[in-house]
Input
Amino acid sequence: MTLSERPRVTRLSFDAATVRGWREPDGRHHDWPVVYMITDSRKVYVGETTRARHRLRQHLDHPSKAGLREVRVVIDEEFNKSACLDLESRLIALFHADGAYAPLNRNDGQQDSGYFERTTRYQPLFDKVFDRLRTEGMFRRSVDEIENLNLFKLSPYKALNDEQLVAVDGIVEGLLEDLTEGRESASVVRGGPGTGKTVVAIFLLKLLRDIQDSGSGVDPSDEGRFSDFFLDGNRELLDGLRIGFVVPQQSLRKTITSVFRRTPGLKGVTVLSPYTVAASPGIWDLLVVDEAHRLTHRGAGPTRGAFSQRNRDLFGEMSEGRTAVDWISAKSTHQIYLVDGEQTVRPADVSRTVIDGLVARASADHRFYELESQMRVSAGQGYLGFARALLTDSPVPARVPASYDLRFFDDLTDMQSQILERESEVGLSRLVAGYAWRWTSKGDVSVDAPHDISEDGVELRWNRTDTDWISSEGSIDEVGSVHTVQGYDLNYAGVIIGPDIVWDEDHGGVRAVRESHFDREVRSVRDEHELLEYIRNAYYVLLTRGMRGTYVYVCDPALRERVRAAISAEHQ
Output
């Protein structure tokens, strides 16, 4: 078989006689690693095995596969166990996001692991498998189009790395123990931007729901990392549990709600705001809190009154000093917090001390998990250090792989043009900026609405929606703020560092410019060092959105030269 003909895809009917009589001429129906798909007109089950015919016979005997009609088996002479596990998990995630076929797989510990010649040898083979399946109508979109969808980025079918798997394993095992013993619990997962905290949360919720919904007994054909959780006793422990997913950011809540509605098992998980939790009747059995560092300690703007009212309703005379973290604790028996203290961007967010307290308590109870591996930005962990230090008094040189597209721009027109090109090539490319310009156009969606940002002859408007802005119509012609992009991924981010942060030649350091910053909550901070930290944190979030590349433009001339020097340092 020539390279162009590989891998081969064998199709057969999913019935006892056909499976029993199936033979491959090279014997690879019996003792060879393969990936297979069992389908009807709309559903698909994806698996991998080294004993294909035996595994298919097991599936025939299990009620969960009743009604499936056809099998496709992907066979290649160079397949090994690692490659098949990789292809299996990738196909499940692609099927789920694309929507032409709904995967029947449960969450059972798909692992993202490196192996020999993964990129050079096996990825081209996987691409051929996908192209063949798409030609046969099993996918509607290209891989690039699927990977740009929120449903793919937030998919519970994502393969997890070792750190993420350890966290999920430990949390579920601990929760089952706590439920058995009848004790309350609080777990914490901490990680920087791009370490996959939200993916862990959604994977965990899907796993718990899969255990709740599993039938009596374990499917003998399933032997994943979490198979031992799918036992009758565990299903009974979780049966009827009231589970909620708390998302502080309004924009992200709608996106996640949409993902849950399209994901089997997650339709029954309620996506909540902290305010909804506080006002909800009864006690939740489990609340999973994403971006818990964005929980509030006093409300912001129009929500301050509601915050005070929720506190009084919950704690009465003891409400002084209470935060939304206290709401979560008071309204649930078990909590799982996903946190990153470095992404606090507003004074209304809970303090670093509160987050440190959650970590300390979870650590004492052996319920604390750390995520360190960078999953978003292809430049790797070193880029996070660069992004963190870029707007300090001592910026570090950009030591990033040449494959990561990090560029400095002297002219905003050029940067906008390049972002538009990246959008046409790969999509998900946007301009983002610090809140260093008034939102004059707020509420005006007409074509004659005033422009908010004017630099280098470029006139731009802030985002016209607060909800899922990145996917909204017209967002490529707008500029997103930290409040619309935190928690989201971009392929390319064009970051405009505004006049709210400058290099002060007289004092030899970076300084915040209060009068050039227009987030009223941040601007009201009186301490100059604290003000600078909030503004830096916001830019850190913006600088860590781009998976494939980050483009940077700086308004202040003196700071521009320092940032240029850091970015222009020789890439490794």
In short: The first strand starts at residue 8 and ends at 13. The chain has three domains: 3-153, 162-371, 381-568. Residues 290 and 410 are 37 Å apart (CA to CA).
